[in-house]
Prior knowledge:
By secondary structure, the chain is mainly α. The chain has 9 helices and no strands. The protein has one domain. Helices cover 74% and strands 0% of the residues. Residues 1-13 have low confidence and may be disordered.
Amino acid sequence: MAVAAASPVEKSVRPLEPPLGVLGAAFAGLFVAGLVISTIRAGGSPFPSPFGNAADALDYFRDHPSAVRTGAVLQYASAIPLVLYTAAAVARLRRHSDGFGTALTALGGGLAAVFLLCSGTVSWVLTVPEVTADAGVVRAVHTLAFLVGGPANVMATGLLIAGIAISAGHRNALGPWMIRIGFAIALIALCTTLALTFTGAAFLLPIARFTGMAWLITAGFRLPRS
Length: 226
């Protein structure tokens, strides 16, 4: 007996979702663009580390306010596709597993976006002349921008990745190798919290951040809609 084809009405009720892979690429692209463009506008000088010399950081923020503002705006903007990515991923994962992993995805992605917004906002404050007139204020604001945009954001992104990996693992929606890599990246991201106590652990931040971005993009293109 032939099976009747789906009617146009049935096809029209299929959920409309933004493409996860494109959203992941937009998030990563805006963030990386902020780093690259701000460095170029600062004449090749990278954004200073809060663990470095305070006088050098003060000179950087006084001499390159436009570069700092460009990086801050693009970092702030990168949170928008990350929010959309998280919402679309949660909606898609609920069709695979409506449980702990989905909740962790929502929580991790939401926190990661909030920390990016906070970091971009705080970094923008470093372009205000009245702020850069006080070395102590600059040091405090600079450190806060690093904490929310570094360990806090990367840790939350690790929770986002772990949530997707847990949910997708129930139906093997991503493949075993993607799941294992996701858990490994999430573990490294959680370990970046050590940078709050041991400054030497800060080297884990770029590792977890950029491998995490690559994983989110790949997972976005591989995760099935149904």
